[in-house]
Amino acid sequence: MTFSRFMELLLAALGGAAGTLLLLYVFRRLWDEWGRDLDAIVSGRDRVEFLPSPIQAIARLRAAERRRNIEVAMEEAGAGFPFRREGSQPLRTAFLEVPPNFERTEVRYVDDNFGEPLAQMVRLAWQFDFDQLLLAERVVDAVSLIRRRARLDDVAPVIKLSAHNGALERQGRFPWKVILETDHPQFYMEELRGIADWLGIGIDVAPGRRLRYLSRCTKGGVFDGLVGGTLAGGGKEYAMTCSHVVSAACPGARFRGNPAVDSNQPDAVLLAEGRQQCFKLPSPAAPCTPATPQMIEQCIVEHILVHKRQRHNTRKKGIVLSRVVGFPIDKIYYRFPHLQVVPLQISILGPFKSVFQRAFSVEGHSGSWVFEERTAGWLGMIVAGDEDRKLSFVAEAQPLVNYFASCMKLQSTDLQPISFK
Predict the structure, then answer these.
(1) Which residues of 110-146 are buried (b: 16+ CB within 10 A; e: fewer)?
(2) Which of 9, 51, 137, 346 has the most C-beta neighbours closer than 10 Å?
(3) What is the 3-state secondary structure (H, E, C) of 369-382?
(4) Under a CB-based contact definition with an 8 Å cutoff, are residues 419 and 381 in contact?
(5) Is 192 contained in some domain?
(6) Average pLDDT of the chain?
(7) What is the pLDDT of residue 10?
(8) Nearest 5°: phi and psi at 408?
């Protein structure tokens, strides 16, 4: 039954004009609530300050400490430094900074799990040159250790990095903050308060959200996702989509991220040539370039418009709200770099803008590629959203390229992303 036919039957059942007015009233109330909640997310009104931002000197010092700890871990493991050079070996243990008075822990990767140490190297390189990313990742380490110590099995928090705040910078304070979205703010506030100086970054708390995949393969041959583009390199071209879209038994999966609890790996898979018939490949297609970290920061601060390129063309626009350094889905905690995208709000419509709101991504959009509209830089691939259809989670493009280049033993510059024109 089509949606229009369903509405016709519903209106008839409710009884003519009176039913129509009632239905419009209900829809208006629902959309208004949706719009108010989205306004709060974008403006930050849903957040409460927990730890104030420290002065810049303290934050820079704590970031330098983490940067040095990464260097030491690489040197002690014999992995060499700089770890981004060609032929460098990955750490075989998980890198976790331990806060003061916390018990030390070590997680060693099993020998046949090559994807996890490679993905960790990508994540460490991604954060290494940026103080705000180093400090956000320090918070994720602390939260992970707190949860292990308390043996929690509830929903883990979403951990994000706020946009650059010029007002804080003018006050001499560190201009980024971490946002902790959780149903248990009091627990984390009590645990983190004692290590506030060690963390080196301010923290706000916000309500927790339930996240979900935007598609899933239930059995071989049944797919509800997209291929947003391909990676070409080493004389071959591979279609890219989300791992959760493709069956675990898919014979075409050539290189695959396999996320697990506290996982560094991306929810992404490359499908070999000749085994991509389950998906429509980009056509017409054209090469594209991953957005730089500076371009991503510009998108967040200036609200540069972004859009999806996919087989079924969509005009829906969005903005990048923040970077995401940790989020849970189905008891898997993702630590691979992601972006959070929200739908563009039509503010000129005033109180009626919520009536015209649409989600940036919906079911079946996993695997779509997202681009910013100023330079057409590729931002990443849609992986998940929230249950209220306000937020989209996008795996960052350059770390995806770096991860699969490492899997293929290539340089990231040897892989060429290709997407829809």
Answers:
(1) eeeeebbbbbbbbbbbbbbebbbbbbbbbbbbbbbbb
(2) 137
(3) EEEECCCCCEEEEE
(4) no
(5) yes
(6) 82
(7) 58
(8) -90, -5
Mean local confidence (pLDDT), 235-247: 88
Which range of residues forms the domain containing residue 136?
48-209
Nearest 5 degrees, angle CA 355-CA 361-CA 362? 85
What single-letter amino acid sits at 50?
F
Mean pLDDT of 52-74: 95
67 lies in some domain: yes
Contact 53, 166 (CB under 8 A): no
The SS3 call for residue 256 is strand
Q: Does some domain include residue 109?
A: yes
- How far out from the chain centre does Cα 130 lie? 18
pLDDT digits (tens, 9 = 90+) for 331-341: 889 999 999 99
Tokens of 214: 């935007």
Are 315 and 301 in contact by the 8 Å Cβ rule? The answer is no
| pLDDT band with cut points at 50, 70 and 90 for residue 97 | very high
Domain tally for the chain?
1
Looking at beta carbons, which pairs linking 22-30 to residues 24 or more positions away fall under 8 Å? 27/355, 28/355
Token representation of residue 115: 């994807």
Diameter of the chain measured on Cα atoms: 76
Kindly tell me the burial class for residue 344, based on how many C-beta atoms sit within 10 Å of its own C-beta (0-12, 13-18, 19 or more). Answer: middle
